[in-house]
């Protein structure tokens, strides 16, 4: 009788221990390098991405692009698709639906948050979320309107709100800031302005709730130590603050180590950033992460080796030349843990 009782108690303790184990949720971002369909949209400059365009973008190449991207996304964090993944350089909702229907992603049960941006190239930001983990509440956009250059159109910032793991309400901001075309200094003004608009949106949330859980992700076309990020957005690597409203860049330390997500003239740039509010780091209950959580997905099979020991992102195109790769950026990700 005593042995049976002891056995029952041990089983109960094991069950309690398992129920109290931390559960991890992967949060990722990926610039997918021009995920276009093959259909000409008369409202955008997408003619190159058609079968008769200069890129000879056929249905087979489109399908290979979908196959490649689904392989990457499904492999982040040991072959478990992320609970949340922000994307940029997607043409429309149709390509997102096609991506989520790829065999390697069907089990992820992804929902889609997306709106069309006014960008002349026709590229947008989007968020995919596992509907089993994330309760989608709604989304809106921050439109970018330059008062000094009214005809210039860039990508909207996508803001998505929902609850993860029946726990904290999260605010995601998915970004794709203006490029460095014309040079870093010449183009910086535009990125600083975008960062200022994002900072205003963050301030509005935190004025209502200083403990608001905020995750900012995207291709900033700037690095963690650039003016747009540190001075306009006020995101840094200060590990000593207890202010829940502070913003911490999870990629800052990796950049300082010489790592990056995009290679330009054989120099690494950390253009893809993951930023969290301090309320997600110093959070005794619910969802939390840590200062060292930032990661870059750099498996050799998504790379090419231009010289011995050097591995760069294997891209789809370089100019008009087709390589059939994945993207010219590496994905970035981190883990949120629920106690």
Automatic annotation (TrEMBL):
Transmembrane segments: none annotated. PROSITE patterns: PROKAR_LIPOPROTEIN. The keyword Nuclease does not apply. Residues 26-338 form the Endonuclease/exonuclease/phosphatase domain. It comes from the Bacteria. Keywords: Signal. Coiled coil: none annotated. Residues 1-19 form the signal peptide. This is Endonuclease/exonuclease/phosphatase domain-containing protein.
